[in-house]
Design goal:
By secondary structure, this protein is an alpha+beta fold. Helix content is about 20%, strand content about 20%. Strand 5 and strand 6 form a beta hairpin.
């Protein structure tokens, strides 16, 4: 994993030590000051922190604010709410992910294979 900044680096360290993904968000960039875990809605898209625009579907678990997805749960955060260097408030939420039918991409498959992810969906 590449070094980003102290906040992101500690979330990556937590992942490596505990096997649990941890997302951190810039609070000032969250619409409505809410963090919601839900399934993606038809037609939603997200630009992830690697700059790739990704189409989402109802099989994908996302972390959203009041208006839009801000991360693909357990996989990668969104560019629009990425933690920067000058953040004063950066609340984070930890979610536990367990293997399930929503396996997303090679990164999640790799983590699942290594036993680093558990998925538990809250409805």
């Amino acid at each position: 994993m590449r070094q980003v900044n102290n906040i992101v680096d500690i979330t990556n360290f937590c992942l490596l030590e505990s096997g649990q993904p941890l997302h951190a968000f810039d609070y000032d960039k969250l619409d409505g000051g809410k963090i919601i875990v839900r399934r993606a809605r038809k037609g939603e898209e997200i630009i992830t922190i690697d700059g790739v625009k990704r189409a989402l579907d109802g099989d994908i678990l996302v972390i959203a604010d009041a208006k839009r997805p801000v991360a693909i749960a357990g996989i990668m955060g969104g560019r629009d709410t990425e933690v920067g260097f000058l953040d004063e408030e950066s609340p984070s939420r930890e979610r536990v992910f367990r293997p399930g039918p929503d396996t997303q991409g090679r990164e999640k498959a790799r983590r699942l294979k290594r036993g680093l992810i558990q998925v538990r969906e809250e409805r």
